Amino acid sequence: DPSGVLDSTEAVQRAIDAASAAGGGIVFFPAGRYHFEGTLLIRHDRIVLRGEGPQASRLSFTRFAGMTGKSHITFQGDVEEGADILLVEDGIDRATFVEVADATSLAVGDDIAVGWVITDDFVEEHGMSLSWQAFNGTWRPFFRRRVVGLDLASTPHRVFLDVPLRYPAKTRDFASIRKETGYLSEVGIESLGVANAVGWEDAWSELRVHVIDLIGVKDGWVRDVASFPAPDPAAQGYHLQSGGIRVLASKRVTVADCVMEKAQNRGGGGCGYLYEISKSNEILVRDSVGRDGRHNFIQNWDFGTTGCVFLRCSSAGSRTFASISDPVGTPAYNEYHHSLAMANLVDRCHLEDGWYGGNRDGASSGAGHTVTQSVYWNTSGGGEILSWQYGWGYVIGTTDMAVVTLLGPPRSAGTAPADYVEGENRGATLDPPSLFEDQLQRRLSLPEGSQSLP
C-alpha cells in the first residue's frame, strides 16, 4: 500500500518469497510510503529490494517490542563451518597461501575461513590477560577467504587464497582452515528511504535495533539508501530507534551513497551505531554520511574484522546519551570498538567528531586492544584522531584535525611504539589523495593472471 495506511508486511514478504522461489528477482517499490508493522526477511540468493529513490520510495517500520538484537530488514545467510584442517606451518602475515597436511577435501572456488583458538599464549602475547575473556578457548574465524588454487603435489599441500593473510596464523594457537557453506550471495537493497523510530520510551525499551542487517552475506550491497523522519508524531523527528546498517559475519559487501542519521537510543548496550561492521572482511563503505548517532561508523564485537575500507565518508554529531532522561549527551567518536580489528583503512573521510582506536581494557566485555596495522589517510573535518594501535598504526595526511598518538593515557597501555604520523595539515597536497583508489587502479591495470600487489 503506497499510501502508508495499510500494513504492507505480509504483501511484501509474499513478493520476496515469490522472487526467491523463481530463483531470484527484484522486489520493486514504486514511489510512495509503505507502512510495516512487522519485519522482512530475505534468505535466498539474487534478491534485490529496489525503489525509485530514497526521497520517493519510503519504508516505515513501527515494531519495537522484542526487537533487541534484530533488524526490520534482514538478509540472512546460514553459514556453516566444516571440520578443522590444521595448518602444519605458521601462516605468514601477507602470505597468499597456507600449508596443510591434506587439502584433498578442498576445491578451487570453495569458501573457507582461516582462524585459530584464542589460547592463553595468544592472549598473553598481546598483554590481554586481564581484558580478553569472552572468547578465550574458542576458535575464531579471522580471515574469510576463497580458494583460488591448490598444490597437492607439494609436501605439505598448499592452499592459495584470494586475499592474503593480514596477521600471523600460528600452529601454536591451532590455526586451521574451515570450509564454509551457506553464504547468501548477490543480494542488495537500493534507492529506498527507511525509518523505524517510535516513541522515545519505546525506543529505549529495547537494545541494538537495526533497520537493515546483512548476516552471512557475500557479494552483497546497500546503495542509495537514506533514513528519514519517521511519520509517527511520537518519534519527534527522529529517524532510527538505535541502529542503522549492520554487516555481520560477511565478506565482499559494499555500502555506498547512503545517509543514516538521528538515532533515538544512543545509550549503552550497543545502541546508536549507524554503520556497524562485525566479524567481517573486505567491506567497503563509501560516499556515505552518518549524523547524530552514538558511534556513527564503528567496528564492533569479536575478533575477525579485517580489510575494511571507509572511503569519503562524512560523520558529525556522534554523542553518547547516559540514559533515557539524557537527550543531550556527551561527545563521542567513530570507533574501532572491539578485539583487534586488523588492516583497515579510513580514507579521505570528513570527520567533524573524530575516530578512536586503542586499548579499551575491560570495557564492552573485555574489548582490549581494538585495532592494529590500520591507516587513517587524508582525513579532514575539524575532529580528532585518537590512535593507539597495538603494534603499528598510521596517520598519514590530515587537514584541520587534532591527532593524538603520544603514549601515556590508559587507553595507550601496551600499544608501543607510538603510531606513525606524517603530513599533519598537509592533506590537501597528499599524493595519492586516496590510498584505496590508487591501489585499486594499480590492481585493475595488472595483466590478467599476474600476482596481486603486496
Please describe the topology of this protein.
Layout: H1 9-21, E1 25-29, E2 32-36, E3 40-42, E4 47-51, E5 57-61, E6 71-76, E7 80-81, E8 85-86, E9 97-100, E10 111-117, H2 120-125, E11 139-151, E12 157-161, E13 176-181, E14 184-185, E15 188-195, H3 200-203, E16 210-215, E17 217-227, E18 245-248, E19 251-256, E20 259-261, E21 273-278, E22 281-286, E23 289-291, E24 295-299, E25 309-311, E26 314-316, E27 319-320, E28 330-331, E29 334-336, E30 341-342, E31 345-347, E32 350-351, E33 354-357, H4 363-366, E34 371-372, E35 375-380, E36 384-387, E37 394-399, E38 402-404, E39 420-422, H5 435-444
Parallel strand pairs: 1-4, 2-5, 3-6, 4-15, 5-15, 6-16, 14-17, 15-17, 16-18, 17-19, 18-21, 19-22, 20-23, 21-24, 22-25, 23-26, 24-29, 25-31, 26-32, 29-33, 30-34, 31-35, 33-36, 35-37, 36-38, 37-39
Antiparallel strand pairs: 7-13, 8-13, 9-12, 10-11, 10-13, 11-12, 27-28
Provide structural commentary.
With 454 residues, this protein is mainly beta. It folds into two domains: 331 residues, 3 Solenoid (Pectate Lyase C-like); 100 residues. Helix content is 8%, strand content 39%. It is built from five helices and 39 strands. The strands form six sheets. Strands 1, 2, 4, 5, 14, 15, 17, 19, 22, 25, 31, 35, 37 and 39 form a 14-stranded parallel β-sheet that branches. The longest helix has 13 residues. 49% of the residues are buried. The model has no long low-confidence stretch (mean pLDDT 96).
